[in-house]
Structures are given as structure tokens and as C-alpha cells.
Design a protein that fits this description.
Shape: globular
Order of helices and strands: HHHHHHHH
Number of strands: 0
Oligomer: single chain
Number of helices: 8
Number of domains: 1
Helix content: 55-70%
Strand content: under 5%
Length: 208
């Protein structure tokens, strides 16, 4: 019970961080920061990697990660764990609410470097605003849940746990960077989405 209370309070703490950061973003004092970071990241990642990173970014789509979450929950074999899906969907409601009522245009077209034709249906839902980043939200949510499941597994050796969680961390960080390198989101979008994903991810641990 103490762990569940700790998860809940920690999750609420990150929710408050998200709303606090949102107010800072809304004040537009980070606009130059967003622009400068985007320019620097794109200058350091050659365009020859854009196709590979574009394909990689598809792994962060809603359709892919909802399946991954379901697989993780099936592996847990605990019915109450499926309430995690409700938490996952709730996080997306906050995302859509933010993008609908908070006018924060994404990077202009000159920064856009996603260069493959395929898109999942969820990508066609556009509100004209890019805050917070849905990819970042989903990746951080899945990272928290996956890390918890791996770390608490009784069948995995410590070395295997370390390798799996290290790979998961690298995968997540790379996904966050692609949001900026492909010109689909500002850095503040990624930070906001990450805070939202962490908060809901930690709260979902109550059911795991």
C-alpha cells in the first residue's frame, strides 16, 4: 500500500510539473531556445539519416505502442493490470486537450525532414498545435511501465535486466531526439510530452 501511495504522489508531482512547464511555454519565453536547439540538432544529424529516422519514428506511433502495452500486460497475467490501458488513454486525452486549446504551432516547414510516404491513421489527427508531443508521451509511458516490469521480473538475471533497460533507455532517448531532428516538434513539446508520459506512467504502476 505504501508503494501505491508513493506512485500516486510521485505521479501527481509530475502532473504539476507538466502544468507548471506548460505555463512557461505559454509565456513564449522559450521560443528562441526552441529555435536554437532545433537548428543545432539538425546541423549535427546529416540528412542522409532522415529516411532511417523517419521509419524509426513510426515505432512511436499510437498504433504500435498500444499493441506493445497490451503485450506487456498479457505477460504480467494480472487482470487488474489492464487498467493501465485506461491510464494510457487518459494521458492522450490530456494531450489532445492541450493541442486543442493551447495554440503552440510546431516548427515551420523549412525544418520538416520526415521523408517517407507511410503514416498511421493517428498521424492524420492534426489540431494545428504541437504541444505536447504525443510520441514523447507514449515513449516515456512505455519506458516507465517496461522498466518496472523488467526490474521486477523474477525470471530475469540482473545482467539481462541491465541490458534490457539500457537498450530501452537508448531507444527512448533516440525517439525523443527524432521528434526534433525531423522537425516535427520543438524541444519544449518533447519536454512537455515527456513529463506527461512520466506522470501517467508512474500512476499506472499502481495497477502493476
Amino acid at each position: 500500500m505504501k508503494k501505491k501511495v508513493l506512485f500516486f504522489l510521485t505521479g501527481i508531482f509530475f502532473v504539476l510539473l507538466f502544468f507548471g512547464f506548460t505555463l512557461i511555454v505559454k509565456s513564449k519565453i522559450l521560443n528562441s531556445f526552441d529555435f536554437n536547439i532545433t537548428v543545432r540538432i539538425q546541423n549535427h544529424i546529416p540528412k542522409k539519416y532522415d529516411t532511417l529516422l523517419s521509419i524509426f519514428s513510426l515505432l512511436g506511433s499510437f498504433e504500435v505502442l498500444i499493441v506493445l502495452v497490451l503485450v506487456l500486460l498479457l505477460l504480467r497475467k494480472k487482470l487488474i493490470g489492464f487498467l493501465t490501458i485506461i491510464i494510457f488513454m487518459g494521458a492522450h486525452l490530456v494531450e489532445v486537450f492541450g493541442k486543442t486549446f493551447f495554440n503552440h504551432p510546431g516548427p515551420p516547414f523549412m525544418f520538416f525532414r520526415y521523408n517517407i510516404q507511410f503514416l498511421f491513421p493517428s498521424s492524420y489527427v492534426q489540431t494545428g498545435s504541437s504541444y505536447p508531443s504525443g510520441h514523447s508521451l507514449r515513449m516515456m509511458f512505455v519506458f516507465i511501465v517496461s522498466f518496472f516490469i523488467v526490474q521486477n521480473s523474477k525470471s530475469l538475471k540482473p545482467t539481462v535486466k541491465l541490458l534490457l533497460n539500457s537498450a530501452l533507455l537508448i531507444f527512448t532517448l533516440l525517439m525523443l531526439v527524432t521528434r526534433i531532428s525531423l522537425g516535427e516538434h520543438w524541444t519544449t513539446d518533447v519536454i512537455g510530452g515527456s513529463l506527461l508520459g512520466v506522470s501517467f506512467g508512474i500512476i499506472s504502476l499502481i495497477f502493476l
